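Quick start: read one record
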Amino acid sequence: MDNLPEKGKLSDDQMEIIPDGGILHQNGKIIAVGAFEQLKKQYNPTTIERLEGNYVGLPGMIDAHTHICWAGSRANDYALRLSGKSYLEIAETGGGIWNTVQKTREASINELAELTAQRAKKLVEQGVTTIEVKSGYGLSVEQELKILEAIKLADKNTDADLIPTCLAAHILPKDFDGTETEYLQHIISKLLPEVLKRKLANRVDIFVEKNAFSVQAAKTYLLKAKELGFDIVLHGDQFSVGSALLANETSTLSIDHLEAANEQEIAILAKGNVIPVVLPGASLGLGEPFAPARKLLDAGTSLVIASDWNPGSAPMGNLLVQATILGTAEKLTMTEVWAALTCRAAKALNKTDRGILKSGNIADIIAFKTDDYKEILYQQGQLKPEKVWKTGKMAT
Protein backbone atom coordinates (compact mmCIF):
# COMPACT_ATOMS: atom_id res chain seq x y z
CA MET A 1 0.00 0.00 0.00
CA ASP A 2 3.08 2.20 -0.09
CA ASN A 3 2.19 3.75 -3.45
CA LEU A 4 -1.52 4.36 -2.88
CA PRO A 5 -2.67 7.98 -3.19
CA GLU A 6 -3.75 9.61 0.06
CA LYS A 7 -7.10 10.76 -1.36
CA GLY A 8 -9.75 9.59 -3.78
CA LYS A 9 -11.07 6.28 -5.05
CA LEU A 10 -8.94 3.17 -5.38
CA SER A 11 -9.17 0.11 -7.61
CA ASP A 12 -8.17 -3.39 -6.60
CA ASP A 13 -5.40 -3.53 -9.18
CA GLN A 14 -3.65 -0.86 -7.09
CA MET A 15 -3.25 -3.32 -4.20
CA GLU A 16 0.35 -4.58 -4.18
CA ILE A 17 0.46 -8.35 -3.72
CA ILE A 18 3.77 -10.10 -2.96
CA PRO A 19 3.47 -13.87 -3.55
CA ASP A 20 5.55 -15.99 -1.14
CA GLY A 21 6.40 -12.79 0.69
CA GLY A 22 8.44 -12.14 3.77
CA ILE A 23 8.89 -9.35 6.30
CA LEU A 24 12.27 -8.70 7.89
CA HIS A 25 12.08 -6.80 11.16
CA GLN A 26 14.43 -5.98 14.00
CA ASN A 27 14.01 -4.09 17.28
CA GLY A 28 10.35 -3.43 16.53
CA LYS A 29 10.94 -1.89 13.09
CA ILE A 30 10.51 -3.28 9.59
CA ILE A 31 13.83 -3.63 7.77
CA ALA A 32 12.53 -4.90 4.44
CA VAL A 33 9.48 -6.42 2.73
CA GLY A 34 9.68 -8.60 -0.36
CA ALA A 35 9.88 -12.10 -1.74
CA PHE A 36 10.88 -14.49 1.06
CA GLU A 37 13.72 -16.22 -0.78
CA GLN A 38 15.14 -12.92 -1.98
CA LEU A 39 15.17 -11.54 1.57
CA LYS A 40 17.04 -14.63 2.76
CA LYS A 41 19.74 -14.15 0.12
CA GLN A 42 20.05 -10.41 0.57
CA TYR A 43 20.06 -10.17 4.37
CA ASN A 44 21.02 -13.69 5.52
CA PRO A 45 18.95 -13.44 8.70
CA THR A 46 20.01 -15.80 11.46
CA THR A 47 16.48 -16.30 12.79
CA ILE A 48 13.65 -17.09 10.38
CA GLU A 49 10.03 -17.75 11.29
CA ARG A 50 8.33 -19.51 8.41
CA LEU A 51 4.57 -19.82 8.81
CA GLU A 52 3.33 -23.27 7.85
CA GLY A 53 0.47 -23.18 5.38
CA ASN A 54 -0.97 -20.25 3.48
CA TYR A 55 -1.23 -16.85 5.16
CA VAL A 56 -1.98 -13.32 4.06
CA GLY A 57 0.03 -10.68 5.91
CA LEU A 58 -1.29 -7.13 6.28
CA PRO A 59 -0.47 -4.06 8.36
CA GLY A 60 -2.07 -4.04 11.78
CA MET A 61 -5.45 -2.31 11.58
CA ILE A 62 -5.89 1.15 13.08
CA ASP A 63 -9.12 2.13 14.84
CA ALA A 64 -9.01 5.92 14.59
CA HIS A 65 -12.13 6.72 16.64
CA THR A 66 -13.21 4.96 19.85
CA HIS A 67 -14.61 5.80 23.28
CA ILE A 68 -13.51 2.63 25.09
CA CYS A 69 -12.78 4.28 28.45
CA TRP A 70 -16.13 4.19 30.24
CA ALA A 71 -18.04 2.53 33.07
CA GLY A 72 -21.62 1.33 33.20
CA SER A 73 -24.02 0.15 30.49
CA ARG A 74 -26.58 1.76 28.20
CA ALA A 75 -28.59 -1.35 27.38
CA ASN A 76 -31.70 0.53 28.48
CA ASP A 77 -31.01 3.19 25.85
CA TYR A 78 -30.79 0.46 23.24
CA ALA A 79 -34.13 -0.98 24.34
CA LEU A 80 -35.70 2.48 24.13
CA ARG A 81 -34.36 2.94 20.60
CA LEU A 82 -35.89 -0.38 19.58
CA SER A 83 -39.23 0.85 20.91
CA GLY A 84 -39.05 3.93 18.71
CA LYS A 85 -37.27 6.61 20.73
CA SER A 86 -34.57 8.61 18.92
CA TYR A 87 -31.03 9.15 20.20
CA LEU A 88 -31.80 12.82 20.89
CA GLU A 89 -35.08 12.03 22.68
CA ILE A 90 -33.31 9.55 24.96
CA ALA A 91 -30.62 12.10 25.76
CA GLU A 92 -33.21 14.75 26.63
CA THR A 93 -34.88 12.45 29.19
CA GLY A 94 -31.77 11.52 31.17
CA GLY A 95 -30.24 8.77 29.05
CA GLY A 96 -27.50 9.10 26.51
CA ILE A 97 -24.04 10.45 27.21
CA TRP A 98 -24.97 11.94 30.59
CA ASN A 99 -25.92 8.52 31.90
CA THR A 100 -22.43 7.22 31.08
CA VAL A 101 -20.87 10.35 32.58
CA GLN A 102 -22.48 9.59 35.92
CA LYS A 103 -21.29 5.96 35.92
CA THR A 104 -17.79 6.88 34.78
CA ARG A 105 -17.43 9.56 37.44
CA GLU A 106 -18.17 6.93 40.07
CA ALA A 107 -15.38 4.64 38.83
CA SER A 108 -11.77 4.88 40.01
CA ILE A 109 -8.77 5.39 37.76
CA ASN A 110 -7.75 1.76 38.23
CA GLU A 111 -11.24 0.49 37.42
CA LEU A 112 -11.38 2.57 34.24
CA ALA A 113 -7.87 1.51 33.24
CA GLU A 114 -8.80 -2.15 33.64
CA LEU A 115 -12.02 -1.78 31.63
CA THR A 116 -10.13 0.05 28.89
CA ALA A 117 -7.37 -2.56 28.76
CA GLN A 118 -9.96 -5.36 28.53
CA ARG A 119 -11.65 -3.69 25.55
CA ALA A 120 -8.31 -2.96 23.91
CA LYS A 121 -7.38 -6.63 24.28
CA LYS A 122 -10.49 -7.61 22.31
CA LEU A 123 -9.53 -5.22 19.54
CA VAL A 124 -5.99 -6.59 19.41
CA GLU A 125 -7.40 -10.10 19.03
CA GLN A 126 -9.34 -8.79 16.02
CA GLY A 127 -6.14 -7.41 14.47
CA VAL A 128 -6.26 -3.80 15.64
CA THR A 129 -2.82 -2.68 16.82
CA THR A 130 -3.39 1.08 17.19
CA ILE A 131 -6.47 2.43 18.98
CA GLU A 132 -7.50 6.04 19.39
CA VAL A 133 -9.27 6.50 22.75
CA LYS A 134 -11.32 9.56 23.70
CA SER A 135 -12.11 10.99 27.08
CA GLY A 136 -15.45 12.81 27.31
CA TYR A 137 -17.33 10.92 30.01
CA GLY A 138 -15.97 13.08 32.82
CA LEU A 139 -16.97 16.57 31.70
CA SER A 140 -15.13 18.39 34.48
CA VAL A 141 -11.47 19.25 34.88
CA GLU A 142 -10.90 16.67 37.61
CA GLN A 143 -12.86 13.89 35.94
CA GLU A 144 -11.43 14.42 32.47
CA LEU A 145 -7.92 14.27 33.88
CA LYS A 146 -8.90 11.05 35.67
CA ILE A 147 -10.05 9.47 32.42
CA LEU A 148 -6.94 10.54 30.51
CA GLU A 149 -4.76 9.18 33.33
CA ALA A 150 -6.71 5.91 33.12
CA ILE A 151 -6.06 5.71 29.36
CA LYS A 152 -2.36 6.31 30.00
CA LEU A 153 -2.32 3.53 32.59
CA ALA A 154 -4.23 1.16 30.29
CA ASP A 155 -1.70 1.83 27.53
CA LYS A 156 0.96 0.23 29.73
CA ASN A 157 -1.18 -2.91 30.11
CA THR A 158 -2.16 -3.67 26.54
CA ASP A 159 -0.28 -4.75 23.44
CA ALA A 160 -1.88 -2.01 21.35
CA ASP A 161 -0.83 1.61 21.16
CA LEU A 162 -3.56 3.73 22.75
CA ILE A 163 -3.71 7.23 21.26
CA PRO A 164 -5.54 9.54 23.71
CA THR A 165 -7.84 12.37 22.63
CA CYS A 166 -9.31 14.98 24.97
CA LEU A 167 -13.06 15.14 24.31
CA ALA A 168 -14.01 17.31 27.29
CA ALA A 169 -16.27 19.12 24.78
CA HIS A 170 -18.55 16.09 24.37
CA ILE A 171 -21.71 17.78 25.63
CA LEU A 172 -22.41 20.72 27.95
CA PRO A 173 -22.50 19.02 31.37
CA LYS A 174 -25.78 19.32 33.19
CA ASP A 175 -24.05 20.35 36.41
CA PHE A 176 -22.12 23.24 34.84
CA ASP A 177 -23.63 26.61 35.74
CA GLY A 178 -23.01 28.58 32.57
CA THR A 179 -23.29 28.77 28.80
CA GLU A 180 -21.52 26.61 26.22
CA THR A 181 -19.05 29.43 25.60
CA GLU A 182 -18.27 29.71 29.30
CA TYR A 183 -17.79 25.96 29.62
CA LEU A 184 -15.45 25.78 26.64
CA GLN A 185 -13.44 28.71 27.98
CA HIS A 186 -13.25 26.92 31.33
CA ILE A 187 -11.84 23.85 29.57
CA ILE A 188 -9.35 25.95 27.61
CA SER A 189 -8.04 27.79 30.66
CA LYS A 190 -8.18 25.07 33.32
CA LEU A 191 -8.01 21.66 31.63
CA LEU A 192 -6.02 21.84 28.39
CA PRO A 193 -2.87 23.39 29.93
CA GLU A 194 -2.87 20.62 32.54
CA VAL A 195 -3.31 17.97 29.84
CA LEU A 196 -0.22 19.33 28.11
CA LYS A 197 1.73 19.61 31.36
CA ARG A 198 1.04 15.96 32.25
CA LYS A 199 1.52 14.83 28.63
CA LEU A 200 -1.85 13.09 28.64
CA ALA A 201 -2.92 13.88 25.07
CA ASN A 202 -1.95 15.93 22.03
CA ARG A 203 -5.37 15.74 20.36
CA VAL A 204 -8.56 17.70 21.09
CA ASP A 205 -12.05 16.83 19.83
CA ILE A 206 -15.47 18.50 20.05
CA PHE A 207 -18.99 17.24 19.29
CA VAL A 208 -20.83 19.71 17.04
CA GLU A 209 -24.54 18.93 17.09
CA LYS A 210 -27.92 20.23 18.27
CA ASN A 211 -27.64 18.59 21.68
CA ALA A 212 -23.91 19.34 22.00
CA PHE A 213 -22.01 22.44 20.78
CA SER A 214 -22.72 25.04 18.11
CA VAL A 215 -20.53 25.66 15.08
CA GLN A 216 -19.67 29.16 16.29
CA ALA A 217 -18.61 28.03 19.76
CA ALA A 218 -16.71 25.08 18.34
CA LYS A 219 -14.71 27.27 15.95
CA THR A 220 -13.37 29.45 18.76
CA TYR A 221 -12.58 26.40 20.88
CA LEU A 222 -10.78 24.51 18.13
CA LEU A 223 -8.65 27.48 17.11
CA LYS A 224 -7.61 28.11 20.72
CA ALA A 225 -6.77 24.43 21.20
CA LYS A 226 -4.72 24.59 18.01
CA GLU A 227 -2.85 27.64 19.33
CA LEU A 228 -1.92 25.59 22.40
CA GLY A 229 -0.33 22.99 20.11
CA PHE A 230 -3.01 20.30 19.92
CA ASP A 231 -4.02 18.39 16.80
CA ILE A 232 -7.72 19.15 16.39
CA VAL A 233 -10.57 16.94 15.18
CA LEU A 234 -14.34 17.09 15.42
CA HIS A 235 -17.50 15.03 15.55
CA GLY A 236 -19.58 16.49 12.73
CA ASP A 237 -22.65 16.03 10.54
CA GLN A 238 -24.01 13.09 12.52
CA PHE A 239 -27.63 14.21 12.71
CA SER A 240 -27.53 17.64 11.07
CA VAL A 241 -25.21 19.39 8.62
CA GLY A 242 -23.00 22.42 8.93
CA SER A 243 -19.68 21.04 10.16
CA ALA A 244 -17.80 20.59 6.88
CA LEU A 245 -17.07 24.29 6.43
CA LEU A 246 -16.01 24.50 10.09
CA ALA A 247 -13.60 21.61 9.55
CA ASN A 248 -12.05 23.27 6.50
CA GLU A 249 -11.85 26.72 8.09
CA THR A 250 -10.06 25.40 11.16
CA SER A 251 -8.00 22.80 9.21
CA THR A 252 -9.02 19.97 11.50
CA LEU A 253 -7.12 16.76 10.97
CA SER A 254 -10.38 14.85 10.53
CA ILE A 255 -14.14 15.19 10.66
CA ASP A 256 -15.78 12.08 12.11
CA HIS A 257 -19.34 10.71 11.54
CA LEU A 258 -20.82 12.43 8.44
CA GLU A 259 -23.98 10.30 8.37
CA ALA A 260 -26.00 13.43 7.56
CA ALA A 261 -23.52 14.86 5.03
CA ASN A 262 -25.17 15.96 1.78
CA GLU A 263 -23.79 16.86 -1.64
CA GLN A 264 -22.91 20.38 -0.50
CA GLU A 265 -20.99 19.15 2.54
CA ILE A 266 -19.11 16.61 0.43
CA ALA A 267 -18.18 19.30 -2.10
CA ILE A 268 -16.84 21.49 0.70
CA LEU A 269 -14.69 18.67 2.07
CA ALA A 270 -13.38 17.88 -1.42
CA LYS A 271 -11.87 21.38 -1.58
CA GLY A 272 -9.71 20.82 1.51
CA ASN A 273 -7.50 18.24 3.14
CA VAL A 274 -9.69 17.26 6.10
CA ILE A 275 -9.93 13.47 6.39
CA PRO A 276 -13.47 12.03 6.62
CA VAL A 277 -13.71 9.29 9.26
CA VAL A 278 -16.91 7.30 8.88
CA LEU A 279 -18.35 5.24 11.71
CA PRO A 280 -20.61 2.40 10.53
CA GLY A 281 -20.96 1.10 14.10
CA ALA A 282 -22.96 4.20 15.01
CA SER A 283 -25.27 3.68 12.03
CA LEU A 284 -25.79 0.04 13.02
CA GLY A 285 -26.32 0.89 16.68
CA LEU A 286 -28.79 3.69 15.98
CA GLY A 287 -30.52 2.25 12.92
CA GLU A 288 -29.47 5.28 10.88
CA PRO A 289 -28.15 5.53 7.30
CA PHE A 290 -24.45 5.01 6.68
CA ALA A 291 -22.20 7.94 5.92
CA PRO A 292 -21.91 8.48 2.13
CA ALA A 293 -18.54 6.77 1.84
CA ARG A 294 -18.79 6.11 -1.90
CA LYS A 295 -19.64 9.72 -2.68
CA LEU A 296 -16.84 10.99 -0.46
CA LEU A 297 -14.28 8.91 -2.33
CA ASP A 298 -15.70 9.75 -5.76
CA ALA A 299 -15.48 13.44 -4.85
CA GLY A 300 -11.75 13.02 -4.23
CA THR A 301 -11.53 13.01 -0.44
CA SER A 302 -9.76 10.46 1.68
CA LEU A 303 -11.77 7.92 3.69
CA VAL A 304 -11.14 6.24 7.02
CA ILE A 305 -13.37 3.64 8.66
CA ALA A 306 -13.42 3.46 12.47
CA SER A 307 -15.59 1.62 14.98
CA ASP A 308 -16.76 4.44 17.30
CA TRP A 309 -16.91 1.76 20.02
CA ASN A 310 -18.88 3.36 22.84
CA PRO A 311 -21.54 2.30 25.35
CA GLY A 312 -24.43 4.13 23.68
CA SER A 313 -24.63 4.50 19.94
CA ALA A 314 -21.97 1.98 18.86
CA PRO A 315 -21.68 -0.93 21.30
CA MET A 316 -20.43 -3.52 18.76
CA GLY A 317 -16.77 -2.54 18.69
CA ASN A 318 -15.81 -4.94 15.89
CA LEU A 319 -13.98 -2.87 13.29
CA LEU A 320 -13.54 -5.55 10.63
CA VAL A 321 -17.22 -6.58 10.69
CA GLN A 322 -18.33 -2.96 10.45
CA ALA A 323 -15.94 -2.26 7.56
CA THR A 324 -17.17 -5.24 5.56
CA ILE A 325 -20.81 -4.26 6.06
CA LEU A 326 -20.11 -0.66 5.05
CA GLY A 327 -18.11 -1.85 2.05
CA THR A 328 -21.04 -3.92 0.85
CA ALA A 329 -23.59 -1.16 1.42
CA GLU A 330 -21.48 1.60 -0.13
CA LYS A 331 -19.85 -0.46 -2.91
CA LEU A 332 -16.29 0.14 -1.75
CA THR A 333 -13.48 -1.78 -3.39
CA MET A 334 -11.41 -4.05 -1.20
CA THR A 335 -8.45 -1.73 -1.62
CA GLU A 336 -10.55 1.22 -0.46
CA VAL A 337 -11.61 -0.68 2.64
CA TRP A 338 -8.08 -1.82 3.55
CA ALA A 339 -6.65 1.66 2.97
CA ALA A 340 -9.39 3.04 5.24
CA LEU A 341 -8.31 0.63 7.99
CA THR A 342 -4.55 1.05 7.63
CA CYS A 343 -2.57 3.71 5.73
CA ARG A 344 -5.33 6.33 5.53
CA ALA A 345 -6.30 5.68 9.16
CA ALA A 346 -2.69 6.35 10.16
CA LYS A 347 -2.91 9.77 8.49
CA ALA A 348 -6.07 10.56 10.49
CA LEU A 349 -4.03 10.07 13.67
CA ASN A 350 -1.02 11.93 12.29
CA LYS A 351 1.03 8.74 12.63
CA THR A 352 3.43 8.31 9.74
CA ASP A 353 5.22 5.26 11.16
CA ARG A 354 2.49 2.66 10.65
CA GLY A 355 -0.34 1.50 8.38
CA ILE A 356 2.01 0.32 5.62
CA LEU A 357 4.38 -2.65 5.57
CA LYS A 358 7.56 -0.90 4.51
CA SER A 359 11.11 -0.30 5.67
CA GLY A 360 11.30 2.05 8.67
CA ASN A 361 7.74 1.55 9.88
CA ILE A 362 6.96 -0.17 13.16
CA ALA A 363 6.44 -3.91 12.79
CA ASP A 364 2.68 -4.05 13.36
CA ILE A 365 1.61 -7.08 11.34
CA ILE A 366 -1.46 -9.32 11.19
CA ALA A 367 -1.72 -12.68 9.44
CA PHE A 368 -4.90 -14.40 8.23
CA LYS A 369 -4.86 -18.12 7.42
CA THR A 370 -5.92 -18.01 3.78
CA ASP A 371 -4.26 -17.98 0.37
CA ASP A 372 -6.35 -15.08 -0.97
CA TYR A 373 -6.67 -11.64 0.67
CA LYS A 374 -10.16 -11.30 -0.84
CA GLU A 375 -11.40 -14.03 1.52
CA ILE A 376 -10.96 -11.75 4.53
CA LEU A 377 -13.61 -9.19 3.61
CA TYR A 378 -15.68 -11.78 1.75
CA GLN A 379 -16.20 -13.69 5.00
CA GLN A 380 -17.38 -10.47 6.70
CA GLY A 381 -15.50 -10.84 9.95
CA GLN A 382 -15.77 -14.61 10.27
CA LEU A 383 -12.15 -14.99 9.22
CA LYS A 384 -10.07 -13.56 12.04
CA PRO A 385 -6.30 -13.02 12.18
CA GLU A 386 -4.50 -16.05 13.59
CA LYS A 387 -1.38 -14.09 14.41
CA VAL A 388 -0.85 -10.49 15.54
CA TRP A 389 2.55 -8.87 16.00
CA LYS A 390 2.91 -5.54 17.76
CA THR A 391 6.29 -3.87 17.17
CA GLY A 392 7.61 -7.24 16.08
CA LYS A 393 6.46 -9.18 19.12
CA MET A 394 3.62 -11.67 19.13
CA ALA A 395 0.64 -10.10 20.91
CA THR A 396 -0.84 -12.00 23.83
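DSSP finds 16 helices and 14 strands in the chain.
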